[in-house]
């Protein structure tokens, strides 16, 4: 694949990130992910980390090599059909020229074990992906996948001769796998030519290109929190507010203070909440659960800053109701706790939740 990127020295292993744009939240994601990778290294171990970015200045002083992306390269990688995630496949393809083994990870990835444990899984004809998500025979029946199904039918794929679909938040490949990435990019261009209904075409294309091969999952070694970003974003913002973004070796140890899972009440508390909401309708149960989960999260300095994540989820659910349902929920005065729901354990939390919901309604 043609590229204007400058050459780098080829290495045996590399941990590869792609990040572009100037949104603080994604920069913090990348930096925190890097810290978690470093925190899992054994004494004396080293790790080549490379960041493909259009803002190399953000990583000055960090123990990474930057590969600078210009507007021309980003436009080339997006392709003529305007599919943003094509850039990921192109980034991996270019990365293959820089190392014998490449482990590409999305920025919303936390390392629970050493990256070298994952590198060990990458062998000739054996790939590593984040995790298995579903089989094509299942997802092909969804309305938003019907158009893609017609393309796959041209390749002889149907529900009866299906293949496995993997989340590509992590992708481990070798330098010899360039034909696989080239095939994936070609499929992306084919499937996005006349518009597209789903935004995971890139990982479907990579999974399709890997069909029939050995694919190993990395979920034992990493936590990809794509569905819980609101909690981890809050914790990461708090972390960098406390310690700053300038790299210091002490950050590696300090990142271990940040929980690797979202704040969830204890099993006993969850059971109590479920019991209290047992007679509510389904949509009311969802709201009540999220409000009470937020107030019942375990005590922890980092969990204190992300209780709003639960309450925000409840607020989104409420905004989806019609006006009559919302008025019934809040009553004539939204300074009082909704009578349909059990109260939080403390009056202080009750007032915090009501203030948060009022703020969300005023938007």
Automatic annotation (TrEMBL):
<protein>
    <submittedName>
        <fullName>Uncharacterized protein</fullName>
    </submittedName>
</protein>
<feature type="region of interest" description="Disordered">
    <location>
        <begin position="329"/>
        <end position="350"/>
    </location>
</feature>
<dbReference type="InterPro" id="IPR029044">
    <property type="entry name" value="Nucleotide-diphossugar_trans"/>
</dbReference>
